[in-house]
Design goal:
Distance between the termini: 30 Å
Oligomer: single chain
Strand content: 25-35%
Structural class: alpha/beta
Helix content: 10-25%
Number of strands: 12
Number of helices: 8
Shape: globular
Largest sheet: 7 strands, antiparallel
């Protein structure tokens, strides 16, 4: 339901993955259109003249009937301290203008794409991984999810089971998609920060692919500010140029997201 510049939508489901991370789905406005990888401003209704809104990437694909979002729990957060208590049937506010430059048209053509996310920065890649255009544009898709604890590796089944068995995307996902989870604070087969794994070459050795090359490799980044800043430096040193809505590039950064 439209209310001024906002939609009032109903919470359909809530999943508490850990004591730090949860996801939720809502009804979708009939008129809402977005590109996979974009985000929208989201908030809770209340008595405020201007409700508190925060940027949330769509975790659902743009062709799905319901909207899905992934969130961190922050006890002191002005919004997330309340948002983490939502239940099915509650109302949420959504802005009417999806935005964001983390979309496929802002990348130059290439052979291989890396989707690099830390924590809940995985969210936009959940929608992008379900986009048929991704598999049409790139021969190989490597999704790297970096977290502190193995329990934070949410949505792993999506990449290892659901997408490979998807009615329309299954064949492409089985052939082209590689899921590479990594953990920093406890033992795990793949261990270490994304930046370290790339700088040391361990990521490429594990995946049996050559080091990043601006001629063929493209990158999308979303996650902690430390990771974004470090990876911009690393990619720049490798000769990759950042893209934006005005000019396509070798890599893209989601700046609106704050982990």
């Amino acid at each position: 339901m439209r209310n001024g510049n906002h939609y009032r939508e109903t919470v359909l489901s809530v999943r508490h993955w850990t004591d730090r991370v949860f996801s939720f789905s809502t009804t979708r406005p009939d008129s809402l259109r977005f590109e996979n990888g974009q985000f929208i401003m989201l908030g809770l209704p209340g008595g405020e003249e201007r409700p508190l809104m925060r940027a949330y990437s769509f975790a659902s694909a743009n062709y799905e009937d319901a909207l899905e979002f992934l969130s961190i729990k922050m006890p002191q957060g002005k919004l997330t301290s309340r948002l983490q208590r939502i239940q099915p049937g509650d109302e949420l506010l959504l802005s009417d203008k999806p935005v964001g430059s983390l979309i496929l048209p802002n990348l130059l053509p290439g052979k291989r794409i890396y989707l690099l996310g830390t924590g809940t920065g995985l969210a936009p890649f959940l929608s992008i991984a379900k986009d048929p255009e991704l598999y049409e544009r790139f021969e190989q898709v490597i999704l790297v999810h970096g977290v502190r604890h193995r329990a934070d590796l949410v949505y792993g089944d999506l990449f290892t089971r659901e997408l490979p068995e998807h009615e329309l995307l299954g064949e492409a996902a089985r052939r082209q998609l590689t899921y590479y989870p990594t953990v920093t604070r406890e033992p795990f087969p793949q261990q270490g920060r994304i930046t370290t794994l790339i700088e040391s070459g361990q990521l490429f050795r594990d995946l049996d692919v050559p080091p990043m090359d601006p001629a063929v490799d493209r990158v999308m980044l979303c996650g902690s500010m430390a990771m974004l800043n470090d990876m911009r430096r690393v990619l720049g040193d490798l000769g990759l140029r950042e893209g934006c809505t005005r000019e396509a590039g070798h890599f893209l950064v989601e700046r609106a997201y704050v982990e």
